[in-house]
Amino acid sequence: MNTTEAAATAREVLAMRQTIAATQPSLDRGLRVAVFLGTWFFSVVAAVLIGGLIGSGPGASVGMVIGLMFGAVLATWASQVIRVAAQWERAVLLRLGKFKEVKGPGVIFVFPVFDNVRIIDTRLLTMSIPHQQVITRDNVPVTIDGALFFEVRDPEKACISVQDYRSAIMQYAQASLRDVAGQMSLDELLSERDKIQAQIAHVVESRSTAWGIHVEAIRLLDINMPEDLKRMMSRQASAEREKRATITKAEGDREAALNLAAAAHTMAASPGAMQLRTLQSLDGLGSSPSNTVVLAVPVEVLELAKSLAGRVTQTVDAPK
Questions:
Q1: CATH of segment(s) 125-226
Q2: This prediction's pTM
Q3: Phi, psi values for residue 120, rounded to 5°
Q4: How far is 133 from 139, CA to CA, in rounded Å?
Q5: How many other β-carbons are positioned within 10 Å of the β-carbon of residue 103?
Q6: Residue ranges per domain, the chain?
């Protein structure tokens, strides 16, 4: 992959992540707003009461101003303490830069400034593998694209072992696809797709396990070839079909000849078979007045001539 393709892939991954983040609403937004408003309200009320006790009327006014300012800061900090992780999410908690624990799902308490949280999605994720230029073993250039299905099994490893597990597994899947497809011939690439998919998934799985990621499957969506190669393959398939049609016709002619020979032998052995066959032929012509059948020689005369010819042959062959 050249620099342009790598940059395009990176942009696609970034756009995909932004799309996912935009389409998934924050589950803790309502709770954090409620905590912010509640904390701000109680801070203002407490400041007004304390100011009123200390300085009567003017003290209450000063306390309200201080409560509004201090309460806003306190409410902002308090709203950052509570997080909510969905059933499919896990929160990797880092305290002062060190791994603390994996929390979730449910309500998570985080202390701002000291703690840093990264939410990991543990559902089955799907990523599209962009077009990959591959040279097969028989030196045929093809373009392959596919889809990658994976899920995070260990959030701690996915967060700590690799900088960006989505980008890492995407790049590794692309490299594995090119390596495995490059070892196959064009015929194997077109006919053994299931084997190639399983082999690519096994290669990616063997490496992604260390990142806490399980590869569910890799599917090849499309295999594009040059147009001239497609035309040659079409001509080859057409010639192959014509060959099979010719062989099938020749086999049919041979079987028909064998059946006709067997039928002739059977009719020769039966005296009345030829007469029945003649009657069947006449019946097959139909009873329409437009069909006129003329028998120049009756069948009986033919049978008599055949019998006389047989006797003459026996007389000639008899020893003198």
A1: 3.30.479.30
A2: 0.62
A3: -115, 130
A4: 12
A5: 19
A6: 28-85+89-121, 125-226
pLDDT confidence of residue 244: 85
Between these two residues, 56 and 172, which has the higher pLDDT value?
172
Longest distance between any two alpha carbons in the chain, whole Å: 165
Residue 22 has pLDDT above 50, yes or no: no
- Extract the tokens encoding 286: 């139909």
